[in-house]
Amino acid sequence: MLDKPTVFVIGAGAGFDIGMPLGDDLADLIASGVSFYYEQGNLTKGNGYIADGLQRMAQHQKTSWESFLLAGRMIAGGIKYTRSIDNYVHAHSDKEAVKTVAKVAIVQTILEAESQSAIAINPQLFPPQFREEEKAHQSWLSTFFTMLQDGIIEAKNLDEIFSNLTIVNFNYDRCVEHYLFYVMQRLYPSKGEGYVAELMNTTLKVLHPYGSVGNLPWQSKTNAVRFGGERDGNDLASLSAEIRTYNEEVDDKRKIEELRKVMAEAKRLVFLGFHFHKQNVELLSPELTEPDLKGTVSIYGTRVSRSAADIESIQNVKMRRILHGRTELPSSSYITERGCKELFRDFGGILSG
What we know:
The chain is α/β, with parallel strands linked by helices.
């Protein structure tokens, strides 16, 4: 259980432990999925689910399917020259067809990645088990949950397990929510699925700045899709509406205010697999015209294969931008190369208080 308001900021690198694709890998999967080619009316290259979803959208919106076809090929040919699909869409934010194709591709690609991850549920086993039990147990998610339940007694304070916790997840997947939902049932089996769902829905705060591929069935019946679930074209069309580009997110003032409020009120910031891209740093940071924030904050973060120049920029430019006048406590650590699991190994006791 956390002893003070703590925000975990999660980036793509946090998915490495459980087999989720990182930025370049995700870009390659999307490029392959939207590189549409047909021979004699049959799709010979590209993802059939994505193509079907876009064709249905074209019919419903009375939009030219050819515009989606060309946008897909455009993405496939150019995405490798940007850092990620997000950067590519941001660079072509004036092209609606590109945004539409990218969003549909993101949903299908992430759902497929979820289904192949270590924490996907094996439907052939009862009671439910993860697809790769040992890999899931060895991941940072396991040590993260151990930290949260430290000091929790089922009969006394189980409803406080997510106290002082906010998760800001820049990824589109639902890995954290999915994992916690199942391990909560394992550790506290007498409570049952309904209790765990109610507890998580009312006390666990997760913000997805760029949206997600849908709600898990226990979260909401609206736009619900099971973890890693295969969906048809109609589902992809509706689910893709929940994916947001950087420009769209900036326009949503209410969500930006909520995001910046939790960052400003945090006494501890933990960055997991977060690359500190410029646009994401801007989303987390107060407006430059706002008064400086007051108080102190502890900061912990992972860094893997980052150059000395990158680290200097993060510490002296980007982190100062996020803090906006707040003081970083000397006990903070962003100076030693470590992954997510190593961070919890080294600082788990400090994080839980």
